[in-house]
Design brief:
The chain is mainly β. It has a domain at about 35-90: Signal recognition particle alu RNA binding heterodimer, srp9/1, CATH 3.30.720.110. The chain contains one helix and six strands, in the order βββαβββ. A hairpin with a 5-residue loop joins strand 4 (about 65) and strand 5. The longest helix is centred in the middle third of the chain and has 10 residues, at about 45-55. The protein is globular. The two termini are about 20 Å apart.
Length: about 90
């Protein structure tokens, strides 16, 4: 895992899942639609989850606190099927 963090706090996290080995997929072309998944940090995941449910967004799981208790997380898909991870960092 590597986290690239800008001075304003915006970050991009790059992960390699060594615990879940899989065959390497064919590389996507620049013009192909979609990506593996996008994670967005939010301030109030429970409220956002309720709002998105009311709009018809389907989730894989209700907001759940991570095993280490650091974050609350849930997943849904965007209109193109890209997996979207929503994360609230717990203080």
């Amino acid at each position: 895992m590597t986290k690239l963090k800008a001075e304003d706090g915006v970050s991009i996290e790059l992960l390699q899942y060594l615990s879940h080995p899989q065959a390497v997929p064919e590389p996507r072309r620049a013009c192909d639609v979609g990506c593996n998944h996008v994670a967005l940090q939010v301030d109030d995941l429970d409220s956002l989850h309720e709002k998105l449910l009311a709009e018809g967004i389907e989730f894989n799981v209700a907001p759940t606190i991570s095993a280490e208790g650091f974050a609350k997380v849930t997943y849904c898909r965007d209109p193109e099927g890209v997996l979207v991870e929503l994360v609230e960092i717990l203080k």
